[in-house]
Structure formats: structure tokens, C-alpha cells
Amino acid sequence: MPTTRHRYTITETDQIAAALADAAVRWPQLRGRPGELLQRLIAEGHHRLKDAAESRRAAVEATAGAATGAYDKGYLDQLRADWPA
């Protein structure tokens, strides 16, 4: 099919074969259609990556400033004074 989009070639390694087999269990309607299974796997992986990044960002924002005031002024300088130069 003609397209102006990039095309990619993937060699089926043992890891990719296992991923396709697992994907066929998850999406049985796509069994025997490896190209579509790969598209689903990529979309699912992308979704999970975005969710993980958003979760980390939310955790950082939720805890930002939680230790404010826990250490005296100059604490790091005092701590580092013991370090070798």
C-alpha cells in the first residue's frame, strides 16, 4: 500500500516471537496478523510509558517541599566539610 509514512522492518527474535504470542492471547482477534499485533504492542507500551512518567511527576509534585525546614541552614556545608578534597 502506498504511503508517505516511514516503514520499519523488524526481525523476529525469540523475544519478539514471545511478545507476539502473548499479544495474540491478549487480542485473539488479531492472531495470525503480526503487523497489527505489533502495532497494538507499540501503542500499549507507549501508553504505559506515558502513565509511568505521569505517575512519577505526580509523586514528585505531591512530595515537593516535604522536607522543607528539616535541616538547619548550612547543614550541607557542615556535612561536606568532612569529605576528602
Labels describing this entry:
85 residues, 3 helices, mainly alpha
Offer a concise description of the structure.
This protein is an all-alpha fold. The chain has helices at residues 14-26, 34-63, 75-81. The protein is 59% helix and 0% strand.
Major beta-sheet overview: none
N-C termini distance = 65 Å
Tally of extended strands? 0
Q: Provide the domain count.
A: 1
Give the % helix: 55-70%
Task: Count the DSSP helices.
Answer: 3
Mean pLDDT: 95
Overall form: elongated
The radius of gyration is: 24 Å
* Binned strand content: under 5%
User: Low-confidence parts lasting 5 or more residues at pLDDT below 50?
Assistant: none
Q: Classify the secondary structure makeup into a structural class.
A: mainly alpha
Order of helices and strands: HHH
Task: Give a written overview of the molecule.
- Helix 1 (about 15-25) crosses helix 2.
- The relative contact order is 0.06.
- This protein has one domain (about 1-65).
- The model has no long low-confidence stretch (mean pLDDT about 95).
- It is mainly α and about 80 residues long.
- The longest helix is centred in the middle third of the chain and has 30 residues, at about 35-65.
- The N and C termini lie far apart (about 65 Å).
- The chain has helices at about 15-25, 35-65, 75-80.
- The chain has 3 helices and no strands.
